[in-house]
Every structure is written in structure tokens, then in C-alpha cells.
Design a protein that fits this description.
By secondary structure, the chain is mainly alpha-helical. It is built from 14 helices and no strands. The N and C termini lie far apart (58 Å).
């Protein structure tokens, strides 16, 4: 049986194909194929906007209900640590990006309009059933309500709904993303924007990877201050989980290896059994770093200077919305797409660029997430031991 091509190779092929089509179209001044691809990207972008509120309800509501249903003191502490970790990663990413990105990205590099017409032949409007904030409030109301009444009927219904939406993401959105990205790159190549975009992407990509590695060290340094366990020895014990996540691109799929690695750090079995699976669901510091730095890069390209007043509410909401991220490659950026559009006012094309950059580093983001879960387990284990005394 032929081996299936992974998503990242498909994405790379899509980018290369889009660039080639864009160059050929520009050289021949024939833009029919680019306009067709632009038409598809427009329709896909509208469908993405339609599905995002449903993703939020489908994943956040059952997630909160499950947290509430199994609520305990240590579970609540774990959730708080994971949230603080995610928003801390976002804040650090903002200040690092504010210091470095303006020096490598000229503000407004892509703000000027091209004379080349590569607009879609037609559009299909797909208004979402509700706004992103309405979806979030609805999800929290339903989730907390289900946890409070301890009923199963609505939870079972929403669990089925969650499975439907996850299948839409997995079998419709994810397979079509390489085509969507190909259309975006064909368009920016035909309009002469490609080299500036690649320059920006390479700078942002390098910053993301370096900060993700540095943040792992920060997490284990905090764990050392808290527990006395040597950070680099603890990180060394977590390396199998890190490298497994590079291959799986899924925190959930890496759970067995993450558990084995956490045991080497002498964390009790009871703590490992709930912290590691929970962290795989709600602790996405690596994705937060990516989404903050990438969004800042896209904004600078568009001539917008991101300020802390603009980005802090986005980071705070990002920490919450990561709970909604489906446990599949690219789930983080799919869950955050609504925030990008509604809080940062991104266009569908800008969201497409974010998706491309996110998928390009998804393996490293996932590896950062699962390695950080080990640091959280160390801290929660120390808290549990102190509570026993």
C-alpha cells in the first residue's frame, strides 16, 4: 500500500505550485488560473468563517462540562497553571516581537495595491449563525450549566455535535487547506508580493522556533524554583516526548510517551494520570507563541503597528480559545481563526497566511506543548505533596 503524503509536504507542494502558477501567469499576463484559485480561496475562506463559531461551541462547551464534572482542587490548579502558562507565553512573544519584528519587517510592505487584477470571478457569502463572542459566551453558559446540573442528555448531544464538527475539520477543512494556501501564494506571486512575504515568513518562523525552545527552559526553571528539580535534567527526561510530538503533530497521540517521560522526573502516578491528558487538551503555549508572533508579522506587513493594548485582549482570549482546539494537526489555528478575524480584523487572505505559517511549524509547537506538560506535572505533584502534609 502506498504511503500517504503528510499534511506538511502537501502544504509545501501547494505553496510551490502556487508560486509557479503565479510566476507563469505574471510572465504571460494571463491570470485565468490565478483568478480561479482566488475564487476557490474566497469561497473556502467564507466557509471557514461560517464553521468557526460551530467549532467553538462544539469543543469548548463539552470541554468545560468535563472539567466541571471531574472538578477537584488539583484539577482546577492544573487548569489555572496551564492558562497562565499560555498567556505568559503570549505576552513574552508580544514584547519580543515588538522589539525585533519592526527591525526586520518594513511597516506596510504589502499595503500598496497591485495594478494586477486577480480578484475572484464570483463570491458565495456564508454568514455565520452567530459571532465569535456570542459563540464563546454560549459555549461557556452551556458548559458551566451542564457541569452544574450534572445532566447527561445535553452533554451526549453536544459530544455528538463535537464529533461532527471534528470530522468537518479533519475531512473537509484540513484536506482543502493546501489548495487554499496554493491560491493565496499564486495571488501574491502574480501581484509581485511573494519575495516580501517569504522574507517576512522566514524571519517570523526563526523567532517562533527560538522562543518556543527558550520557553521550555523558562517553564522548567520555574519548576526548579518551585520544587528544586534540576531543569536541564528534567528537560532531558522529556526529550522522547518532544521528538515523538515532532512526528505525530498531535499532543493527544503523544500522551503515552509523555507519560513515560514524566515518570522519569519522579512524578507520582496519580498526578501523571490526569495532568498529562488534561495538559494535552488545554495547554498550548507553543501554539500561543506562534499565533501571537505570526499575527504581529502579518499586521506589520499590512501597515498596522501592533500595540499592547491591541494584543493583550487577543492573548487573554487566545488562552481561553485554545481549549477549543481540536486534537488534530492545525487545530490551534482553526480554533483561533475567529479571534483573528473579529479582534484583529484580519481578512480571509491574512488568515490564510496565518494558517500556512502555523502548519509549517506545527510539529515544533506541539513538541513545545507536550514538553511543557511535564513541567506542569512536576509543579502540581509538589502542590499535592504539600497538601498531604
Amino acid at each position: 500500500m502506498a504511503k500517504k503524503i503528510g499534511l506538511l509536504p502537501k502544504l509545501i507542494l501547494g505553496i510551490i505550485l502556487g508560486i509557479v502558477i503565479g510566476f507563469i501567469s505574471k510572465a504571460t499576463e494571463t491570470f485565468v488560473i490565478v483568478k480561479l484559485m482566488s475564487t476557490f480561496s474566497g469561497i473556502f475562506g467564507n466557509f471557514l468563517g461560517f464553521i468557526i463559531p460551530l467549532v467553538i461551541i462544539g469543543f469548548v462547551a463539552p470541554g468545560i462540562a468535563d472539567l466541571g464534572k471531574n472538578a477537584g482542587k488539583l484539577l482546577g490548579i492544573t487548569a489555572v497553571i496551564a492558562y497562565v502558562s499560555a498567556i505568559s507565553a503570549g505576552i513574552i512573544a508580544f514584547f519580543l516581537g515588538s522589539t525585533i519584528l519592526p527591525n526586520v519587517i518594513s511597516s506596510g510592505e504589502l499595503a500598496a495595491k497591485s495594478a494586477v487584477d486577480v480578484s475572484p470571478y464570483f463570491e458565495i457569502n456564508m454568514p455565520p449563525m452567530m459571532g465569535v463572542m456570542t459563540a464563546l459566551i454560549t459555549a461557556f453558559t452551556l458548559g458551566l450549566g451542564m457541569a452544574s446540573i450534572k445532566g447527561k442528555s445535553l452533554l451526549d448531544t453536544l459530544s455528538d455535535f463535537q464529533n461532527i464538527i471534528q470530522n468537518v475539520v479533519k475531512y473537509v477543512l484540513i484536506p482543502l487547506i493546501p489548495i487554499h494556501i496554493s491560491g493565496i501564494f499564486a495571488k501574491i506571486t502574480a501581484t509581485g508580493e511573494i519575495f516580501k512575504t517569504i522574507k517576512t515568513f522566514s524571519s517570523v518562523f526563526a523567532m517562533i522556533l527560538l522562543l518556543q525552545l527558550a520557553y521550555i527552559i523558562v517553564q522548567y526553571t520555574i519548576a526548579f524554583i518551585f520544587t528544586g528539580k534540576k531543569p536541564f535534567k528534567s528537560i532531558k527526561n522529556m526529550l522522547p516526548a518532544y521528538f515523538t510530538a515532532l512526528g505525530t503533530q498531535s499532543s493527544a497521540a503523544t500522551i503515552p510517551v509523555t507519560i513515560q517521560s514524566a515518570r522519569k522526573n519522579e512524578v507520582s502516578e496519580d498526578i501523571i494520570d490526569f495532568v498529562i491528558p488534561l495538559g494535552a487538551t488545554i495547554h498550548l503555549a507553543g501554539d500561543t507563541i506562534t499565533l501571537v508572533l505570526a499575527s504581529m508579522g502579518v499586521m506589520l506587513m499590512a501597515g498596522i503597528t501592533p500595540t499592547f493594548a491591541m494584543m493583550f485582549p487577543f492573548i487573554m482570549m487566545l488562552g481561553v480559545i485554545m481549549v477549543a482546539a481540536p486534537g488534530i494537526p492545525g487545530g490551534g489555528v482553526m480554533a483561533a481563526a475567529g479571534l483573528l478575524e473579529n479582534m484583529l480584523m484580519f481578512t480571509s487572505g491574512q488568515v490564510g497566511l496565518m494558517i500556512a505559517l502555523h502548519f509549517a511549524q506545527d510539529s515544533f509547537g506541539t513538541a513545545t506543548n507536550v514538553t511543557g506538560d511535564g513541567a506542569i506535572a512536576i509543579m502540581v505533584d509538589e502542590i499535592a505533596e504539600k497538601n498531604k502534609k
